[in-house]
Amino acid sequence: MAVAKYSVLALIAFLVSPIMVMLMANNSYEVDWSTGVDFTDFATKNTFFAGDVLNFHYDNANHNLVIATDGDAFDQCQMTPNLGFYRGGNEALTLAEPGNYYFMCEYNCKSDGMKMSVYVNNM
Hints:
Elements lengths: L1 H23 L3 E5 L6 H7 L2 E2 L3 E5 L7 E4 L2 H5 L6 E5 L3 E5 L4 E6 L4 H4 L2 E7 L2
Parallel strand pairs: 1-3, 2-8
Antiparallel strand pairs: 3-6, 4-5, 4-7, 7-8
């Protein structure tokens, strides 16, 4: 009787495990990092979780990507110090921890408001 009970539990675990893995899978988001994009709309329409990835695509002759240290630096478009500075044109950034993340373009932050903040939730 005990063997049958454990066999049923093992079968349930076997069937449920792939579903749990699918539910915990990280999402990947494409970000058109250029002027004229409504980043507030993008950030509010999506719910981000720790482990999700933002894929930034931009023309590196006209834009770059800077991660601000905090909300004050973000509000003032303060580029240094920063948590990351990228110029490659295609950046895949993992949102590793819950909390606020602040992204800015050095060239267009003040002139065109090219910046985005996102809130990352726990899994």
